[in-house]
Write a structure and sequence with these properties.
This protein has 238 residues and is an alpha+beta fold. The chain folds into two domains: 64 residues, PRC-barrel domain (SH3 type barrels); 151 residues. The protein contains five helices and six strands. The protein has a six-stranded mixed sheet, with no helix packed on it. Helix 2 packs parallel to helix 4 and helix 3 packs antiparallel against helix 4. The radius of gyration is 25 Å and the shape is elongated. The C terminus is likely disordered.
């Protein structure tokens, strides 16, 4: 959207990447030159928060909130390999006597310092993603029990057909969103972990590298598919 149209988004609902409404757009923060710098969001609990513009995606009338974990993970997965490659290139230049030892050491220390901080940030993202995965799994488990209990009450006639259909549709849609969110966080965690492992592998002996690569490849194998059994309306059984 153009800058002039962004103001039309004020008061509009904001959804996360999985379709859940999390709040609404309250206002913008602009620089003196008129550049959009940040956005103020009123979340569902009434709390206001200032977020960078990069955390929102505007698609027509739709406003989508991108999680901080995924945003940061994408940046780290670009920066860590880049800094590592620069340090490797620097080492090659030093071995070829194209730069002085003093210049090499100074730049190497700089790259090492940046890389160390990026790896710490990456580990934080891995840990935060793991927490979100656990939260999603707990939600999926609760929803599965909710669906089972709904089926039982419907089967014995405690819930009529109309309310059953409404409740079942709501639970299934929420389950779909929770499963999608969990999968996204698992992919994010795997991607960042692979970047960290790749950086570690680069300094290992060849035989150890092969083993580490095998572990890394195994960690990227797809999870078993999630199968949800849906009851056909009008027939008995869960």
């Amino acid at each position: 959207m153009s800058n002039s149209n962004l103001f039309l988004s004020i008061g509009k609902p904001i959804k996360n990447e999985y379709g859940r409404v999390i709040g609404k757009l309250a206002s913008f923060a602009l620089t003196p030159s008129g550049k959009f710098e940040a956005v103020y969001i009123e979340f569902g609990d009434g709390q206001f928060s200032k977020q960078p513009m990069e955390s929102l995606r505007f698609t027509g009338a739709e406003i989508t909130f991108i999680s901080k974990i995924k945003n940061t993970a994408g940046t780290l997965c670009d920066q860590i390999p880049l800094i590592w490659r620069k340090d490797e290139a620097l080492k090659d230049l030093s071995e070829k006597k194209k730069i002085t030892p003093e210049v090499y050491q100074d730049l190497h220390n700089s790259f090492s310092s940046v890389l160390t901080q990026l790896k710490k940030d990456a580990q934080i993202i891995v840990d935060e993603a793991a927490i979100e995965i656990e939260r999603c799994q707990e939600e999926i488990s609760s929803l599965s029990y909710a669906i089972a209990n709904l089926e039982i009450e419907h089967e014995i006639g405690k819930v009529d057909e109309e309310n059953y259909k409404i409740a079942f549709g709501l639970l299934q849609e929420t389950l779909r969103r929770a499963t999608s969110e969990k999968t996204d966080y698992e992919l994010t965690k795997s991607r960042v972990s692979s970047v960290l492992l790749g950086d570690t592998v680069s300094s290992l002996p060849k035989t150890t590298k092969i083993y580490a690569e095998q572990v890394s490849n195994a960690s990227r194998l797809p999870e078993p598919p999630v199968v949800v059994y849906v009851k056909e309306i009008g027939k008995a059984g869960i």
